[in-house]
Give the backbone structure.
Amino acid sequence: LKNAIDPIPWKEKSKDQVRLIYHTTPHRGLQLLIPVMEELAKIHGDKIHLDIYSSFEAYGWKERDEPYLDLFERAKAHPQMTYHGFQSNEVVRQALQEAHIFAYPSIWQETSCIAAIEAMSAGCEVVCPNYAALPETTGGFADMYHWNEDMNYHANVFANFLNRTISSIFDDNVQKKLLYAKNYIDNFYNWELRSAEWTGLLQGLIREKKA
């Protein structure tokens, strides 16, 4: 059965700056995002900002952050990035309400992606590759590019797509699409629907066992 979330209330977002967010564990693509952001900041300056909520502390495995400490320091040192480490889901959900783009150059074979689901529920554009279950999860609404196993090629394609998305995020057609995406996510990944599916599954197993 599919995942589910509590829908995130729609909130009007500021147009003073394009806020990007990365709110999943670092091994899923942060090593591509940081250098891409460093390059895009040279183009857009303080018109963009990336908030990073990322740590294996989410799973109680803080020691697994060790290979990514240099990336965290690069983010901390950059004026257009803020590294927040691990934060509660409540804090992340509030940050998503302020964000415009979930920047996700995924290198991880997702079977589903709650981070993308929550981002879309909050009205964020998702920029990601068509890798693993991301096309299914995002329902065709993401700003999606072809995944490539070559990391340099992947980073370059992601940078081009992200740059385009940053430039067009406030266009009327994009904003309308984000509303459609939120409606799709909130109706397809909500707990009312999913709990009914679980109830049906469990009742079926009980009947099968009694038969």
